Automatic annotation (TrEMBL):
Keyword Transport: yes
Subcellular location: Cell membrane
Protein name: Amino acid ABC transporter permease
Lineage, opening ranks: Bacteria, Bacillati, Actinomycetota, Actinomycetes, Micrococcales
Source organism per UniProt: Brevibacterium salitolerans
Chain ranges of the ABC transmembrane type-1 domain: 45-230
Topology of this chain in the membrane: Multi-pass membrane protein
Amino acid sequence: MVSGLVLAGVLAYVVWRFGAAGQLTAAKWEPFAYTVIQTTLLKGMWATLKVAVVASVIALAIGITFALLRLAPTRAVSLPSTVVLEVFRGVPVLLLIFATFLLFGNQIGSFWSVVIGLALYNGMVIAEIMRAGILAVPRGQREAAMSLGLRGGQTMRLVLMPQAIRAMMPTLIAQVVVLLKDSALGYMVTYQDLLYQVRLVGRDYNNLLPTFIVGAALFIVINMLVAAFARWLESRMQRKTAARTGSAKADR
């Protein structure tokens, strides 16, 4: 109750400050009723989703690959993979985007510059998440798979990896949300995402603060949709696992 009262007081103060600064007048919010403004913001929203989806798929592929390379029994494979992972994970994502754009921007454009920068950084983070998930699977699972005659690759693909993905799903989704928000850095290399369009509308109509509020609300809606999809996917995976377990018990 105390926290709720404090939050309500903070919100009331913010609204009062907006009103005192003239940010709640109809003239500041009227442009959002224009079709051209709505189209511009939706265009930016689609651009943000597009770069986030493509970067997430590539980052997941990079993450799985480097997680397996780091777990390789041969040190000649695991050591270079660890060095590469630590380098890209230690470089700020904005620098990766800038470097990609400066080196290859003329050939690949701003879209792929943002995608590559986001995928490299988040892929290395996902690799560590996946490696931790695989190592967290009980050792008996690997030993049981090997006793049934499965090879190392089959054990990883059929036994360890599915369990690791299910266990790490909340963390993976959280990293995807981070990637989605980091995609806003694309405006630094002239990628016309949601933040780029928000700045454009706010500058042209002299209502920068209301436009940023609308842009923040759109980002929140996108994150809520991602979280809802994550909950659906997690529940679906749990139902499939429960069904397989029940079928296995019935066969016994």
